[in-house]
Specification:
The chain is mainly beta. It has 1 helix and 15 strands. The chain is globular, with a radius of gyration of 14 Å.
């Protein structure tokens, strides 16, 4: 079981990005769980795609239509089990970026970097979508608050 479970990313004000999606560019994020791949699309055109790790059977990634609700540079990870805060950075459980798209009583879910590189391509997380740090940084730079996120089986 991974440690990003029910991720609770926190950040100081300078790390959170509050830019909203421009209406003129119809970007969206499409996650295909079975493919273990996320796509950034503009209309019907695929701009980029990245390999990911998704939720394990016991802790699945939520499916449905969402939107980017939080963007954090250098997210601080708080353990849902101990409450302990962990410093940001490439070796933290959340990696270099957090792209939040769903929150519920089960926790917060999003795309984030990971130091657990061998998990990419597998269904092993506690619901979040793990990405290589360089990939989540690239995706982060292209989306804004309000960008649609579609999570398909």
């Amino acid at each position: 079981i991974s440690t990003e479970s029910v991720a609770n990313p926190t950040a100081t004000a300078p790390n959170e990005v509050n830019e909203t999606a421009p209406a003129t560019r119809p970007l969206r994020i499409v996650l295909r769980i079975d493919e273990r791949r996320v796509y950034l699309t503009e209309g019907d055109r695929i701009l980029n795609s990245y390999p990911v790790a998704v939720g394990a059977a016991a802790t699945p990634t939520p499916q449905g239509q969402f939107e980017v609700s939080k963007l954090i540079i250098e997210p601080v990870w708080q353990s849902p089990w101990t409450g302990e805060m962990h410093a940001p950075g490439p070796n933290s459980a959340l990696g270099l970026r957090w792209i939040g798209f769903h929150a519920s009583e089960s926790g917060s879910f999003g795309f984030h970097g990971t130091p657990t590189l061998d998990s990419i391509g597998k269904a092993v997380s506690n619901g979040c979508v793990r990405m290589y740090n360089e990939d989540v940084v690239a995706l982060f730079s292209q989306v804004r608050i309000g960008t649609p996120v579609i999570v398909e089986p």
